[in-house]
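To whoever is covering the structure queue this week,

Two jobs came back overnight. Logging them here so there's a record in the thread.

Job A:
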Amino acid sequence: MYKPDNWVIIKLKGNDPHYRVLAGWSGGYLNGNSWRLNSGITHHEFDGDYWYFKGSTNSCYKCYVDSYGLRMNTAPVWAKLQELHGDKVEMLEDQEWNTKGWDWVLKEIPQGTKKKKP
């Protein structure tokens, strides 16, 4: 399970529209900042403090609700996504993702992939 220090929801438009978690971790003295972009949200749960996002490759991200936003570890990645994909990528505003039903962020699981329980 991945537990990022900060995270945002990215909407990918185009032939395969879906949403992904862009997650970042702040580095320390011995290791630098890092980031990950999940494979596409297929399942979600909320326990009052954390969102749990399952990806289409069965990865799980445990995201603290108040840690939503870009930081130095993810801002360059977001800038590169915009450079490469232009208006085909969109970052959801803070709390915008929380005001709607979550079914709109779910990515269909590819055929042949077993769906695991969260």
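Job B:
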Amino acid sequence: MSKQKKYYWLVLRKTMPAEFEAWFEKQAANGWFPLINIHSFFVMSFAKSEATKFRYIVDYQKKSTDDYIQTYRDFGWEFVGVLSRNYFVWRKEYEKERPEAFTDCESIKHRNRTFIKQVIISLTGFTLMSLVATIGVFGGIANFGTIGAALSVLGLCLLYAATVSHVPALKKIIQNKDV
């Protein structure tokens, strides 16, 4: 049995922090633990170990401070890593009651709204890149050649995948103010 496994393009499949958290917890219950680095939204590795019951938290922070990190540690949370520069991943082992890092609804709403803002920024970036590539290909395919055409098609596929995966989460947030 392999001691590591990889997942690709997670940013297109996990659209909300709670989805990442539940997925990490399921992986840990099966003995797989994330090896998180800055590129983990695109390629995430997991290492095999003994199954453990962990509560995971994915928390967006524009900038981490010593106080932020120390506060989590003071409450018994273990730092796992950072996804894409600003998404801090924490975990805490437990047996009975599942621990919460956010104790009030307003904190959860704020986290989810911040996450959705970042999703919108990402989708806008994908859209602009795809439009530029498409205009370039259709406006002068001779200038870009086969590589340009392939990159344009890839850009459009990524835009479609990002849109399909994130629109349901955006609708959920818009329709339900409590998420």
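Note for Job B: The longest helix spans residues 105-139.

Please reply-all if you pick these up so we don't duplicate work.
Q.
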